[in-house]
Amino acid sequence: MSAQRGGVIGWLVMSFVLVSVGLVAAAIFIAHTIKVHESGAGNDVKVETPFGSMHVSHNASGQPETAGMPLYPGARPLKNKENAVVDLSSVLGDSDLHIVAGKWETSDSIDKVRKFYEERFPEMSVVQHDGKVEMHSVNGKSKRVIALRQRDGSTEISLASVGEPKAN
What we know:
Helices cover 26% and strands 40% of the residues.
């Protein structure tokens, strides 16, 4: 019985060692095939892997138009530059994932900005509370969120979109 037990334990140890060596080899291969391209300022990073690529762009102006969300006319990016665009190509299968998020401000009233977005997105549900307006829509795999807030005599506009990129 103990010889049989020793054979099973030996087989388990060898299997563990072989699986571990295989995982380490796969990790080394993947690590050597990953390429990272970064702009000089670090605001633009592209990562390429054997499974797909990811592109992250952080800039002062943002690009909500790439997600089919128009920027309110005359809106300026907030001073803290909280705008980014993320593209995940082929990482999640055949459909690409595009994420756009950012904050802007305008001297126009919150009601005027709300009307601008309601005309462009009549399907959005709108919730208004405590001087804030939140607008949401889900269309298939895409979700859009617009948040407006009155602040220090201006209107802060937060835009976020998750889904497929806008068709060219």
